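Holo model, CA2. Inputs:
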Amino acid sequence: MSRTVFVLNGPNLDLLGKRQPEIYGQETLADVKALCSRVATEHGLTIDFRQSNREYELIDWIHEARERAAAIVVNPAGYSHTSVAILDALAAFDGPIIEVHISNIHKREAFRRHSYVSTVAAGVIAGCGTQGYALALQRVASLLEAKA
Ligand code: CA2
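Output:
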């Protein structure tokens, strides 16, 4: 069985650590990737870590995950709150999906409180900073273990 986890990041997350540190912290996306690699190795998982500013590209990657990944960790960023298309793509994925938000979306503007993606996620982590990615991978490891 595949132990590959796709870690997908939505629009503007390439700016992590470069703007708005008061909301998203100091770490860059490269730091998050290094953190994910470390945690994945600890749990015998392999990660495929990607970021895109384009909705269609994220959708294509979710389709690709159907063939190649056992689980998806996704921070859909702004698309969480708007994209039925990303929701539909994720709904066609068979394995566990964990949604991550670096900030606490429930403490911010009202429009951030609703996420389409949450309706298909096995779990949602918000407001734990970039550590949320590590928590998500730990959860994926537990879910895959329980399934094996
Ligand atoms: O808290 C999160 O992880 C979000 O998914 C981040 C999204 C936001 O639209 C969601 O409501 C919550 C924004 C990603 C943009 O990230 C930036 C990072 C640094 C500077 C500017 C944007």
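The first strand starts at residue 4 and ends at 9. The pocket of CA2 is lined by residues 12-13, 15-16, 19-20, 24, 75, 77-78, 80, 101-103, 105, 112 (CB under 6 Å).
Archived with the compound record.
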